[in-house]
What we know:
2 copies of one chain form a homodimer. Chain A is α/β, with parallel strands linked by helices. Chain A folds into 3 domains: 27-221 and 384-456, Ribonuclease Z/Hydroxyacylglutathione hydrolase-like (Metallo-beta-lactamase, Chain A, 4-Layer Sandwich); 226-375, Metallo-hydrolase/oxidoreductase (Rossmann fold); 470-569, Ubiquitin-like (UB roll) (Roll). Chains A, B: Belongs to the metallo-beta-lactamase superfamily. RNA-metabolizing metallo-beta-lactamase-like family. Bacterial RNase J subfamily.
Amino acid sequence: xxxxxxESPALGPGPxxxxxxxxxxxxxxxxxxxxxxxxxxxxxxxxxxxLLIVDCGVLFPEDNQPGVDLILPDFRPIExxxxxxxxxxxxxxxxxxxxxxPFLLKQRPDLPVVGSKFTLALLAAKCREHRQNPVLxxxxxxxxxxxxxxxxxxxxxxxxxxxxxAVAIRTAAGLVLHTGDIKLDQLPLDGRLTDLAGFSRLGDxxxxxxxxxxxxxxxxxxxxxxxxxxxxxxxxxxxxxxxxIVACFASHVHRVQQVLDVAAAHGRxxxxxxxxxxxxxxxxxDLGLLRLPEGLLVDLDLASTLPEDxxxxxxxxxxxxxxxxxxxxxxxxxxxxxxxxxxxxxLASSLIPGNENAVFNVVNGLVRLGANVVHQxxxxxxxxxxxxxxxxxxxxxxxxxxxxxxxxxxxxHLRANAELAVxxxxxxxxxxIAEDGVVVDxxxxxxxxxxxxxxxxxxVDGLSVGDVGESTxxxxxILGEGGFIAITVAVEATTGRAVAPPTVSGRGFSDDPKAxxxxxxxxxxxLSRTEAEGITDTHRIAQAxxxxxxxxxxxxxxxxxxxxxxxxxx
Amino acid sequence: xxxxxxESPALGPGPxxxxxxxxxxxxxxxxxxxxxxxxxxxxxxxxxxxLLIVDCGVLFPEDNQPGVDLILPDFRPIExxxxxxxxxxxxxxxxxxxxxxPFLLKQRPDLPVVGSKFTLALLAAKCREHRQNPVLxxxxxxxxxxxxxxxxxxxxxxxxxxxxxAVAIRTAAGLVLHTGDIKLDQLPLDGRLTDLAGFSRLGDxxxxxxxxxxxxxxxxxxxxxxxxxxxxxxxxxxxxxxxxIVACFASHVHRVQQVLDVAAAHGRxxxxxxxxxxxxxxxxxDLGLLRLPEGLLVDLDLASTLPEDxxxxxxxxxxxxxxxxxxxxxxxxxxxxxxxxxxxxxLASSLIPGNENAVFNVVNGLVRLGANVVHQxxxxxxxxxxxxxxxxxxxxxxxxxxxxxxxxxxxxHLRANAELAVxxxxxxxxxxIAEDGVVVDxxxxxxxxxxxxxxxxxxVDGLSVGDVGESTxxxxxILGEGGFIAITVAVEATTGRAVAPPTVSGRGFSDDPKAxxxxxxxxxxxLSRTEAEGITDTHRIAQAxxxxxxxxxxxxxxxxxxxxxxxxxx
Lengths: 570, 570
C-alpha cells in the first residue's frame, strides 16, 4: 500500500511508545479504526501468537478530505501477519462494519468470514461486485464456534439492521464481550430482543473486558421502540392525498417493513427507488426478513403511471447525497418521478452530522416544488439504532465487567461512555480509553495500555487505494480554496535567457479575464534579473518566479492560489 | 462590479418575467437577499419614485463556495438609482443585517443610515475598519422619522442582541410592518419587551403588508426566557474546580452579562478572549448595556496567571472557526490558555447548520485534553433568538395583516411561516412567498407578485468583490476534488514538432511519484500523430493532449482531475 509510510511492524512497536512483547497467556487488543471516530470499525485481538478480527468497515470522508471516496482502516500492523489471522467476525451488515472487507480479502482471500445469515448475504453481494468469492462461516445467536485459540459465542442484539450479533471471545486470558452496535428496544419489530439474559449469564461467569458501543453515550435516556414509528407513518401517509415518497437507509429492513405495512393499509402500491434499496430489500425478502404482501410491489415505470393516491415510493437519498434519487427529485431531474404540489415526502432517517446542508438543500428543493416534507425535526419518523445512556447502564449492570473499553465513537462519546461505566461501579483505573492504534493488554485480569502502533487514514479514490495521502489532500485543499496560477517559460539552457514571453494562466482564480494581465511583465522583469545574475538552473528560475508571483498576488488580491511555474530548457 | 453579469436595470425587468411599471400610488418590495436563504438580508421598498432599504447584511459561504469569504446581496437592481435612495434602515447589529453596509456605502457614501444606538455603534466600528465615516441617524423605539415619502415608526423588539427594532413604513400605498429578527421573550434580561401592544395598535389601524422573520417557523412552541439560562450556568460554573471557558457569540451581550454575573458570584475574575468579543463588549459597556462590576475584568495575560478556580474566560469560537481562540485551545496551540484535565468549557451558543463537524472537532479536541465540555446538547445553555411557531401566532394575531410576506429563511422556513399566517386567518392568496429578486407590488391594499429582477450571489474573496463567480467556483470544486495534471510541450511553430519531451506534473493528484510516469510516452505518441496530420495550431494540439490524458486517467484511476495542457510555440 503506497502513500502510508510503513514504520511499524505487526502489533509491534510504533514511534514514541513501542509496546513490549505480549506477556505469556495475555490477550492484546488494538483498534485499527473506529475509536476516536465514527466509522471504519476494526478491532484486532491477539492471543498465543494468533489473531482474530472483529469487523472491517469503512469511514466516509469529511470536508478536509476532498475527492476521497472511502477511508479504510490501516491494515499495516497486520500485513506481515496475515497468515496468523484465524477469522474475521462481522457483527452486522452496515458499511462501517463490512465495507472494507473486500480490501482485506485482496490480501488474504481465504480468510474465514464469520457472521449471521443477513450479514453474510449483504457481504456476498458486495464481494460479487469485487469479483470475490469469500469463505463464509454462518453463525446465529446461541451458537459457538472455535477459531484457533479463540472460542466464540454469539448473542442476539437489536440494532437498525436485522440479524446483528454481539460476540463473546474466550481465551486463556479471560472472557471478552464485544457488543458491536447495539440498543435495547424492548418491543422489537421482529421480536428478537438484545440478549440481556445471556449477557447476565456471562456477567455471572465474570467478564474480564467489555467493549461497548459509545455512539449515543452522550444522549440521556432511552430510545423509543421502532414499532412506535408505525402509527406516526400511518398518520402521515393516511392523510396524504397525492404521491408519497419515503426515504430511509437502504439496510433498515424494519423501517421499510413498517412503511410497506402502512402503504398496504391505505391501498397504495410500492416501488423501490435506488440501486442499494432494490438490492438490499431483495436480499431481505429472500431470507424472509421482509414480508411482502402479494401484489404490493410494482416496478418503477408502472408505479409512475398509477393514480397519485395509490402509490408510494421507498427511496434512497435520505442523507442528501447529490446523485441519489431523492436529490434528483428535489432538483426536478428524476426521470420517472416529478414532484407536484401536494406530494408528501418523508425522511424516515437520522441526520448524520456534516450532512445538514446537503439534506436541507434537498428539503428546500422539495418544498419549493410544493411538497409537504416530514422529517425527524417535525415528526417522530426516526429512532436511533444505538443505546443512549439509560440503556448503556442496563448493559453495564448486566455484564458487571472488571475492565471496560469504550469503542465506536469520537472522544466526546468515549469519555461519556467511560463515565457511565464508572457510575455503575467499574473502577476508574479499569476503564481504558484507547483510540486507534493504542495497544491494550489484558494480563492477569487487568487491562492496561502498553503502547501504540502507528495507524493512519488510508484513502480510496477511484480505483486505487493509498496513493492519495496527506500531501495530495493538502494540495487539493489549497487548490480548492484559491485555484492556481501557472506560469510557463522557455529558456535557453546555456544562458537562462527567455526565448519567448511567459505564458500565464489561472484556473479557479478569477472570472475576470484581465485579472492576471500584470503577471507577464512581472515575470519578464524577474527573468531579466535571473539572467543578469547568470542563473541557468531551471529549479532556481522556477523558485524565483514562484516567489515574485506569490508576493504580487498576496499584495494585490490578498489570496493564496497555488503558484505553478514550469521552466522549459530549449 | 465584475463577475456578475448586468442584465437588469433598477427594479426593472429581469429575464423571463419582467415586472410592469409600478402602478401610481403603489409600493414595490424586492428582496436583494435574505429570502430563500439565511443571511445577507436586504429589502428594497419603492414608492413615488423613491427607495428605502431595510438592512444590508452578509451571508457566509457553504461547501460549494470554496475560498469565498463573504457573500453580499446583489446591488445591481439599485445601482442605477443610488441617488433615489432616501435611507438605509438597520433593524439590529448582527452581521447578516449590517455586514454589507460598507460595500453599499462605497457606492453611495452619503447615504443616511438609520438605526438604534447599539446598532449604529457596531456599524461605526465596522466602518472605521473600512476607513468610512457614514452619516448616522440614531432612532429609538417609539420614535418616528421621515425620509422622502417614507414615514417610519420604530418598535422595540427582543432578539439575541440588544437594541433591536422593528420598523413600520407608512406611505400613500398603505402601512407596512417589518419585524426584523424577533422573538417574544416575556421576561427579557433588560426588561425591554417586544412591543406587542404597539403592534396591536398598528393592527387596529390596519397593516397592509407584514414582513415576518421565518427562521424558526418550523419549530413548535416557545423559546425559554434568556434569563433561565442563568441558573444553568450557575450550576455548571459553581461546581467547577478548575478553569472555566465560556464561548458564545461576540454580540450576545445578555448572554455574556449572565456569565459575568455568575463569575462574580463565584469569585472568578473574567478575561475576554478574541478580537470581536473584546471590541463588542467594550462598545456595550460604554453604552451602559453591559454592567461590569468594579475589578471583575482582568487582562488576558494576568488572567492566565490567576489560580484555576478564580478565573473565567469569555471567548469567541463557538462555531468551531479554525482560527478562533477556542479552536487553538482545542489543538493545544493557544499562547496564553492551555487546557488541563478538570477544566470546564461551556459552548453557550447555537450550532449553525453546516458547522457541526467543525464544532465537534473542537469538542473532541477539548475532551481529549481532559476538559469537561458543556453544550446545548447536554445542558440548557442556549436559547434561540428567533420566534418559533407559538410566538409567531401571537404576532399574527396582534397585527392582523391583510397581506403577509415571510422573510429571513430558506424555503422550508418560508412555507412553514406562510402556513402559520393562514391558520390565524390571513387569506391564502394574500400570503406571498417571494424569494430574492421577486417583485411584490402592494396596490389598492393587495400584494401580488408582478415579476422578477435578476439577482445573483456576489462573492468577496480577499480584497476584491465580484471577480470570483460561478465559473471560478466550478473550477475550484474540480481542483479541490481531483487536483490537476499539467502537461507542457514546446513545439516548432511551423511544423508542430515537439522540440523536447513533454513536462508532466500533477498537484493534488497522487502521493505516488510514479503515478504519472506513463503520461510522457502517451503525450509523445499523440504529438507524433498531430504532427503527422500537419496540425500546427497550438489550441488544437492542446485539445488533443487534454483528450488523450483525460481518457487515460479516467481508465487508469477512475478520477477526474483538471487536465491543463500548455503548448508553447518556439
